[in-house]
C-alpha cells in the first residue's frame, strides 16, 4: 500500500542529536500515518549509525561508503519512494507538536502546492527567518563574510517584511525541513548533485517553482538547533563558495524570478 509520508534524514557525525530527531518524528506520526523513514549516513566516523539502529519505528538505514554530499545522499532513496508526500529533514530538527500532521492536511487542501516550508524556531522560541528571495552574489557575500552588517539588505533577503505570520510564495526555501509532494520531488530527480552542500535548497526551490509553487506555512513550526558552521570552518566556507559558483553558473548572475 502506498505510504502517506516518507521522510529522509542525511547524517554525518550526528551522534549527539540524531536519536532526538528520529524519536521526535516517529512519536508524532506513528499513530497517524503509514510512513517510511530513511536515514542515509554519509560514512560517519562516530556512533551515529549505532544511535540510529537503536531507534524504534519503520526505519531503513542506508550507509554510504564515503561522504557524497547532502543532495546526492538524499537522492539515493528516490527510486524507493512510494508515498504521497516526502519530507527532507535535517538531523538537527526536533518535532514538538503536530506540525507534520497539520502540514499534511494543508497540502491535501491546496493541491497546487509542490513544496511547503514551515515556520522554524530556535529552541528558545525565537523565529528563524529562513525564507529567502533568490540569492545574488552580494547577498551571499554579506551573509558569509559580513553577517553583522547591512541589516536592511539582509532583512529584505530573508523576507522579514512579510511578518512570517501568513502564507506567501517563497523563492528560496530552507533545506532543514522541506515538505514535498513526492511526485514533484521525483519529477525533478531530487537535488542537483553538483552541489555538495549549501544552495542545493535554493536550486531545488527554483526548480519546484518552475512547475509548481513553494509556499511558507505559518500555522505551526518545527524546532531547529541551527549553527552557522560555515563561519567557523575554512573547509565549509570553501564548500559554500564552490556551491555558489555552480549555482550562478547554472542560473546566471542576474536576479530572475
Describe the protein in words:
With 257 residues, the protein is an alpha/beta fold. It has one domain (3-132, 166-229): Spore Coat Polysaccharide Biosynthesis Protein SpsA, Chain A (Alpha-Beta Complex), CATH 3.90.550.10. 34% of the residues lie in helices and 21% in strands. The protein is built from nine helices and nine strands. Strands 1, 2, 3, 4, 5, 6, 7, 8 and 9 form a nine-stranded mixed beta sheet that branches. Strand 1, helix 1 and strand 2 (35-41) form a beta-alpha-beta unit. It is globular. The protein starts with a strand and ends in a 6-residue tail after the last helix. The model has no long low-confidence stretch (mean pLDDT 94).
Topology, please?
Blueprint: E1 3-11, H1 18-29, E2 35-41, H2 48-53, E3 59-63, H3 70-75, E4 83-89, E5 93-94, H4 99-109, E6 115-121, E7 127-128, H5 137-145, H6 151-157, E8 177-181, H7 182-187, H8 200-211, E9 214-224, H9 234-251
Parallel strand pairs: 1-2, 1-4, 2-3, 6-9
Antiparallel strand pairs: 4-8, 5-9, 6-7, 6-8
Quick summary of this structure?
The chain has 257 residues and is an alpha/beta fold. It has helices at 18-29, 48-53, 70-75, 99-109, 137-145, 151-157, 182-187, 200-211, 234-251; strands spanning 3-11, 35-41, 59-63, 83-89, 93-94, 115-121, 127-128, 177-181, 214-224.
Estimate the global geometry from the Cα principal axes. globular
- Mean pLDDT, nearest integer? 94
The CATH topology is Spore Coat Polysaccharide Biosynthesis Protein SpsA, Chain A
CATH hierarchy, class: Alpha Beta
Could you say what the CATH architecture is? Alpha-Beta Complex
CATH-wise, what's the superfamily? Answer: Spore Coat Polysaccharide Biosynthesis Protein SpsA, Chain A
Helix content: 25-40%
**The number of domains:** 1
Amino acid at each position: 500500500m502506498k505510504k502517506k509520508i516518507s521522510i529522509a534524514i542525511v547524517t554525518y557525525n550526528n551522534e549527539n542529536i540524531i536519536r532526538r530527531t528520529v524519536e521526535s518524528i516517529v512519536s508524532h506520526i506513528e499513530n497517524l500515518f503509514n510512513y517510511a523513514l530513511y536515514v542515509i549516513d554519509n560514512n560517519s566516523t562516530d556512533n551515529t549509525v549505532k544511535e540510529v539502529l537503536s531507534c524504534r519505528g519503520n526505519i531503513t538505514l542506508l550507509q554510504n561508503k564515503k561522504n557524497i554530499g547532502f543532495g546526492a545522499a538524499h537522492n539515493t532513496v528516490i527510486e524507493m519512494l512510494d508515498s504521497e508526500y516526502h519530507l527532507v529533514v535535517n538531523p538537527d530538527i526536533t518535532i514538538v507538536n503536530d506540525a507534520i500532521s497539520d502540514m499534511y492536511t494543508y497540502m491535501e487542501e491546496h493541491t497546487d502546492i509542490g513544496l511547503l516550508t514551515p515556520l522554524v524556531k530556535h529552541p528558545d522560541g525565537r523565529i528563524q527567518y529562513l525564507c529567502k528571495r533568490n540569492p545574488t552574489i552580494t547577498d551571499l557575500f554579506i551573509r558569509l563574510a559580513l553577517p553583522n552588517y547591512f541589516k536592511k539588505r539582509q532583512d529584505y533577503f530573508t523576507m522579514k517584511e512579510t511578518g512570517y505570520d501568513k502564507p506567501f510564495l517563497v523563492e528560496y526555501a530552507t533545506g532543514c525541513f522541506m515538505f514535498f509532494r513526492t511526485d514533484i520531488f521525483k519529477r525533478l530527480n531530487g537535488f542537483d548533485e553538483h552541489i555538495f552542500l549549501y544552495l542545493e535548497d535554493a536550486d531545488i526551490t527554483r526548480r519546484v517553482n518552475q512547475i509548481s509553487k513553494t509556499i511558507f506555512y505559518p500555522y505551526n513550526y518545527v524546532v531547529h538547533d541551527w549553527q552557522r558552521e560555515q563561519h567557523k570552518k575554512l573547509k565549509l566556507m570553501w564548500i559554500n563558495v564552490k556551491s555558489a559558483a555552480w549555482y550562478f553558473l547554472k542560473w546566471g548572475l542576474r536576479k530572475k524570478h
